[in-house]
Amino acid sequence: MKFAMFKYVKYGIETVGNEELEKSSKYVRLTEYVEVEFIPLDYKSVTTQEVAILEGAKKELKKEYHNKKSDIERKIGELLALPEPE
User: Fold this and answer.
1) In whole angstroms, how far apart are CA 82 and each of 3, 29, 70, 73?
2) pLDDT tens digit string along 6-45?
3) Side-chain-side CA neighbours of residue 20 (13 Å)
4) Which of 27, 30, 57, 67 gets the most CB atoms within 10 Å of its CB?
C-alpha cells in the first residue's frame, strides 16, 4: 500500500493517508508516497483483542442501561408521589 503525509489545512493537523485523502479539498499532501508492506499479526492475538474490546463495550452498554433504567424508575416514583389534582 502507498502512503504519504498530509496536513488538514483548517486545523494544521498532520496525518498519514493514501490517494483517497489526496482527493479531499481539506488536505494538502506534504510528502511523496512510500510503499508500505504490512505484516499481519497472528489470528489468535487479533481475535483476543477484538473480543476484549467487545466485552468492554458490552459492560459499558449494561452500565448505560442500568443508569437509564434507574432514571426511569426514579421518574416513575416521582410521578406516583405527586398528589392528585383537586
Assistant:
1) 64, 64, 19, 15
2) 999 999 999 999 999 999 999 999 999 999 999 999 999 9
3) 3
4) 27
